[in-house]
Structure formats: C-alpha cells, structure tokens
Design a protein that fits this description.
GMP Synthetase, Chain A, domain 3, four-stranded mixed beta sheet, SH3 type barrels, 221 residues, alpha+beta, five-stranded antiparallel beta sheet, globular
Length: 221
C-alpha cells in the first residue's frame, strides 16, 4: 500500500539486472513491460526503508535503439581524445512527466496486486537525471568517451571505485582511464561487467573563467 511523503529514508541504489535483492528484482520485472508499453525503459530501481515506510524509486529513460555492429566494433577500440571526436555533453532523458505519471499508476497497481513490498511505501517514478545509471553493455557502448564512475563488488587493481573516461567496452568488460598518473597518462583499467556493482555517468560543472579587471593590461618587461 502506498503512503505519503517519505521521511528519514536510507536508500541504496539497485542497478537494473545486477545484484538486486529479491524485492528490487521483482519490482524491476514488474516495471519493465509496463514502461515498455509507454515507450520507456527501466534503467534503475532504488529501494530503501525509511523510519515509517519503504521508498521505491523507478528511473525511466526513452527506449534507445541497440548499437549497430559498427558501433560495437568501434567501442572495442580505446577512445583517443587526439583521434576520436569528443561526444557531446549528455543532455539527459527525454522522458515526459506524463509518461512517468502513467507508468507510476500502472507500476503501483502491479506492486499492490503482487504484494511485492511489505507494508506501506512511497513510489516515485522519474528520469535518472544527468548522471544516468549505466546498467547494460549497450549503455557503455553508447556513452564511450564520457566521464563515468564505476563501483565494483570487490577491489579491481586495488580499488573498488574508479572515475574517469570510459575508453572502451565490449560484451564482457569496460575500460576506464582513471586520469593522469605520474610519468604520463594512466593506462585504461579493465573492469569485468560481472564485477560491477553500480555505474553512472558523471556530470561535471566547469568553473567559470574569471574576467580580468576592466581596462587592465598585461605589463611588459
């Protein structure tokens, strides 16, 4: 049964298709065909328990065409900023408010009918925002060249977290360049898809360039 506004939530993200608990997996299974009927795709589920009621959030994106064989082949080649054109900034999802509202009604009815969530809960359906979760191999192919954050279940090359440029991807792993290392650029870090707990795009706000004082000129020596 759905309740009022959440309070004191302690939510954790459950990437669709990867290491969900039973409740998250069942919610995702119910929501996916409903969302597809409205031209949407489920890209993430967040399930958390507040002080009084559970909170369920379903993230939607528009259904994207599957990458072509040429795109898969290109994604396997490491991204090179000197050679490859930089991808345009991610503009976010184009899912409409009306679609979210319709999916919310249908998903809520399905959760209630199946008794998936014990007790009262709050259901929220929205777009994932600019830091979109990456949950399928095709997602990594589409966003090659963009900055990402990848968290793993266990340490990979000594760390469970890597942030950097998504350099390459195939059906089994992704490669992330974590940044500059001493002595030159860092080597891409291979992360098996099976080891990923959660991954998302990173939205970076560039600091504005501070203008000089009006009428000031560089002094010559």
């Amino acid at each position: 049964m759905r309740g009022g506004p959440p309070d004191g939530r302690s939510a954790f993200f459950l990437a669709a298709g990867w290491r969900m608990d039973d409740i998250g997996r069942r919610i995702e299974a119910l929501a996916r065909p409903i969302a597809a009927a409205f031209g949407c795709d489920v890209v993430g589920v967040r399930y958390g328990q507040g002080r009084k009621r559970a909170v369920v959030t379903v993230f939607l994106d528009t259904i994207q065409p599957e990458p072509t064989p040429e795109q898969w082949q290109a994604a396997e080649r490491p991204f090179d900023p000197q050679r490859d054109p930089a991808p345009p900034p991610y503009a976010g999802s184009s899912v409409s408010v009306d679609a979210c509202s319709r999916v919310s009604r249908e998903v809520g009815a399905a959760i209630d009918a199946e008794g998936v969530v014990p007790g009262s809960y709050v259901l929220e359906v929205s777009s994932p925002g600019l830091e979109r979760p990456l949950v399928r191999p095709a997602d990594f192919v589409r966003h090659r060249g963009r900055r990402v954050e990848v968290r793993t279940v266990e340490a990979v090359e000594g760390s469970r977290l890597v942030r950097g440029i998504l350099a390459a991807a195939d059906a089994e792993a992704v490669w992330v360049v974590p940044g500059e290392a001493r002595g030159g650029p860092a080597a891409p870090r291979r992360v098996p898809l099976a080891a990923i707990a959660a991954a998302r795009l990173l939205y970076e706000v560039k600091a504005p360039v501070k203008p000089g004082r009006p009428g000031s000129k560089a002094r010559k020596r």
